[in-house]
Amino acid sequence: MNILFIGDIVGKLGRLTVGRVLPRLRKDANIAVVLANAENIAHGKGVTTKTLAEVRGYGVDAFTSGNHVFWRKGTSEILDSDETSIIRPANYPNDVPGKGYKVIDLGKDGRVLLINLLGRTFFNEPVFCPFRTVDKILEDFTDQEFAATVVDFHAEATSESVAMGWYLDGRVTAVVGTHRHVPTADAWVLPQGTAFVTDLGMVGARHSVLGVEKEIIISKLKSPRPQKFEWVEEGPAVFNSVLIGVEGGKAKSVERVDKVLEE
Predict the structure, then answer these.
(1) Spatial distance between the Cα atoms of 251 and 176, rounded to a whole number of angstroms
(2) In degrees, to the nearest 5, what angle opens at C-alpha 229 toward C-alphas 119 and 262?
(3) DSSP code, position 10
(4) How far, in Å, CA of 108 to CA of 95, rounded?
(5) Of 152, 164, 71, 75, which is closest to residue 116 (Cα–Cα)?
């Protein structure tokens, strides 16, 4: 079974890029399930029902998120819906709307357990320990069988992501990193059969700084004056993802699938 996990989808250009790449890729690579991080899907921050539906129409089955998921009004209702396709970090307090995991039924291909976690290093977020949180989730599902268990670790520090990969090696099928929007070159299968990559990267504007107009970020870094972010919505784009080959619940392969779409 092949699983495709797409990096942070950033704004309108990111959504359109998924539409240009994914349908053919899904068919050509015989992909059973497509996952993606969607915390930046609605004009750079947050999610809406409309933007999630648009990208689902291109072939994404389920979404993870991160610290920007509550940016827009109506998010709580989206996350609490019984039919929602998106989860939020599991280590937020229990009274926060939504769930931190999702079981995806693929029929004859079995079921996939998708887990979302948020890192703590360099983050100012009210979250519990991600390591203890994932332990508890895996313990709760001990008596259930899954074709794959996939973890999106939305983190700032690369060291924290690498540590999570080693911590879960042999216990889950894959640990992928999101949030930094920069693809890392360390995709590999750890010794006990867990696919790992520090960061998937993003889907969005190539001529930008992490999806934002580059001049704005340069000014922000040069001056203490506040800057309003504007997201690049046209021009060349990047599509960052990894393809994970799975057999018997273990990762047999993982490879980057990165594309550049010129204007």
Answers:
(1) 12
(2) 90
(3) -
(4) 35
(5) 152
The β-bridge partners of 189 are 195
| Cα 227 versus chain centre, distance | 27
State both tokens at 34. Answer: 């497509």
CB 249 within 8 A of CB 146: yes
- pTM exceeds 0.90, yes or no: yes
Establish how many alpha carbons lie within 13 A of residue 17's alpha carbon, considering only the half-sphere containing its beta carbon: 32
Closest CA to 171 of 191, 188, 187: 191
In tens, the pLDDT along 126-181 reads 999 999 999 999 999 999 999 999 999 999 999 999 999 999 999 999 999 999 99
Of these residues, 68, 154, 179, 181, which one is catalytic?
68
For residue 36, what is the enclosing H or E element? strand 31-37
| Inter-helix orientation angle 158-168/130-140, to 10° | 30
Tokens of 73: 């009004």
Question: Residue 181 catalytic?
Answer: no
Helices (H), the chain: 11-28, 49-57, 75-80, 130-140, 158-168, 214-222
Do β-strands 237-239 and 259-261 pair in parallel, antiparallel, or remain unpaired?
A: antiparallel
Asked if 169 contacts 189 with a C-beta cutoff of 8 angstroms, the reply is: no
